[in-house]
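Help needed: design a sequence for this.
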């Protein structure tokens, strides 16, 4: 017999009854039922119930065992007594009567329990991540993550993509976030950077004559932690294609992403034939460029119904042509208590309040706004929004550029409070026609709004002759249930157009050559039209595992302060290491 096991803890069935077997694993749970000890033995593959009574030669050792001790157990497989089967377990019809126990690895007192899924402080969970990963839900999430990546890889290869690995040590570039820098020992005072994305390399692969590239790529960004991104590093399904239009990218990737979701959705419906929503429309209807389409609420511009009305606050605002009034429908929200609650929530968000109209059973509008604008205008708003008795609508007014984010939060809040969101489906969509540029109010200059390497709609002619803030780009996102899960674009592959695009954002040709010299040179020697995208592996896995915390689907994540509590990173280095790198520390005081 094998030194440690003849079977795994998930393998035994009725067909093994009366066999002598050997298992090794962790003591998941130990129960004493009137002097009979039940040990649930767990390994990666499953769990088997093992039994020792006072007649067992292993009983004395069994009495010393504690949770999470690693043991080898020999014994005979028998059927569980009638009425004690556990249909929830694949091994639930059998148990092992123990003849021998060997302790392979005793465990100290546990800082957090492995049995059960109770909440525990995050700092403890991260410091003892090796224990946390033994817990059933987290262990399963990590295995699901691996299966999802396998599915992505298989589907990409079936779609004709080839897998390449691009460099990890590269040059610093303005991708939109702060680089992680790596000092060079061989070249004093010079630095490598960890890639924020393989953007330039994958475009260079297209210059090199490869046609369809992909990789599951690690990306590194020295950003402040965010709820929807792990600090430090993340993974993306990165891809690029030559001789393609935007439509070709959509046709290639929609089946891949839909297929992955359908495979792991556990029967939940997945959108087929994704809607394509222009960026400006997404902001107007949903107040976000990553809308949760499970929420049926669509906002509407109802400015005309308030222009010149008796509600002077809105009427005066609308005298300025840039201002608008948006309505947020609230089906079933026509109670004074709910409207007051929403008003209080808006004040908590730093707003003066949230105006509303309720429609009573007789169809009449109620509330201060309805009184001020009169029956005719109230009825026109009701008809425009499709409201009925028992419904309400909330109103946000001012410059949409300044209030759209709040309006989107209000739409989400109404959907959640009124249980309008269908939690049991995956609603996917393309967001298209992103603006090429945006105005940076702090620095009083024009910046790229998305990806600086994207092709402007209208090409070089648009860059030369149109107002930059009106130019749209061949850029697109994939959204799902309120998250951006992928982003991409058709690339600007003409050197003169690339220089002009960066010039508008304040970079000269010299900057372009210095920062993107490899790609700029490559464009001079026959560049094919090309485009691609990158999908966030972590976010896709998070959605499919039914969690809202990226730490629940990552092996060894950092905390919110970008610290690895398990390995003690970041940590100090020795003076010798600093001397080798020609670095002297200039630490902040205090």
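Sure. Designed sequence:
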């Amino acid at each position: 017999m094998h030194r440690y096991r003849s079977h795994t803890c998930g393998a035994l069935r009725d067909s093994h009854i009366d066999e002598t077997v050997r298992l090794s694993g962790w003591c998941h749970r130990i129960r004493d039922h009137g002097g009979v000890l039940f040990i649930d033995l767990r390994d990666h593959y499953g769990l088997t119930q093992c039994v020792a009574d006072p007649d067992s030669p292993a009983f004395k050792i069994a009495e010393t065992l504690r949770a999470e001790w690693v043991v080898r157990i020999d014994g005979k497989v028998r059927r569980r007594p009638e009425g004690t089967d556990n249909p929830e377990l694949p091994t639930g019809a059998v148990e092992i009567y123990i003849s021998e126990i060997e302790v392979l690895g005793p465990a100290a007192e546990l800082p957090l329990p492995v049995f059960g899924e109770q909440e525990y402080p995050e700092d403890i969970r991260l410091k003892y991540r090796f224990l946390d990963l033994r817990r059933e839900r987290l262990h399963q999430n990590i295995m699901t993550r691996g299966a999802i990546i396998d599915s992505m890889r298989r589907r990409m290869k079936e779609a004709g993509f080839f897998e390449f690995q691009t460099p990890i040590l590269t040059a610093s570039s303005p991708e939109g976030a702060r680089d992680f820098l790596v000092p060079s020992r061989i070249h004093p005072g010079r630095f490598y950077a960890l890639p924020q994305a393989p953007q330039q390399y994958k475009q260079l692969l297209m210059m090199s004559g490869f046609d369809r590239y992909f990789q599951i790529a690690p990306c590194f960004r020295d950003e402040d932690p965010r709820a929807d991104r792990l600090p430090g590093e993340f993974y993306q399904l990165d891809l690029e294609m030559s001789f393609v239009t935007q439509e070709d990218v959509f046709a290639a990737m929609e089946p891949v992403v839909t297929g992955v979701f359908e495979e792991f959705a556990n029967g939940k419906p997945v959108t087929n034939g994704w809607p394509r929503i222009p960026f400006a429309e997404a902001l107007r209807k949903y107040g976000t460029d990553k809308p949760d389409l499970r929420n049926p609420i669509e906002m509407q511009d109802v400015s005309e119904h308030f222009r010149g009305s008796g509600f002077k606050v809105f009427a005066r605002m609308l005298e300025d042509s840039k201002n608008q009034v948006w309505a947020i429908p609230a089906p079933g929200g026509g109670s004074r208590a709910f409207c007051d609650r929403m008003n209080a929530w808006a004040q908590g968000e730093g707003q003066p309040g949230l105006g509303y109209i309720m429609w009573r059973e007789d169809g009449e509008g109620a509330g201060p706004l309805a009184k001020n604008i009169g029956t005719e205008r109230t009825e026109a708003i009701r008809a425009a929004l499709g409201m009925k008795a028992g419904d309400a609508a909330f109103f946000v007014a001012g410059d949409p550029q300044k209030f759209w984010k709040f309006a989107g939060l209000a739409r989400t809040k109404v959907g959640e409070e009124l249980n309008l969101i269908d939690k049991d489906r995956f609603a996917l969509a393309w967001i298209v026609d992103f603006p090429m540029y945006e105005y940076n109010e702090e620095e009083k200059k024009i910046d790229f709004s998305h990806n600086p390497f994207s092709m402007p709609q209208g090409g070089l002619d648009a860059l030369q002759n149109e107002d930059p803030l009106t130019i749209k780009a061949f850029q697109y996102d994939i959204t799902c249930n309120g998250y951006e899960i992928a982003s991409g674009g058709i690339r600007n592959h003409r050197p003169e157009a690339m220089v002009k695009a960066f010039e508008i954002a304040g970079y000269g040709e010299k900057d372009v050559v210095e920062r993107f010299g490899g790609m700029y040179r490559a464009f001079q020697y026959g560049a094919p039209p090309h485009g691609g995208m990158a999908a966030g592996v972590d976010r896709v896995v998070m959605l499919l595992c039914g969690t809202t915390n990226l730490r629940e689907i990552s092996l060894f994540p950092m905390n919110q302060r970008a610290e690895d509590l398990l390995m003690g990173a970041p940590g100090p280095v020795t003076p010798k290491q600093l001397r080798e790198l020609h670095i002297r520390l200039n630490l902040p005081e205090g």
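The chain has a mean pLDDT of 95.
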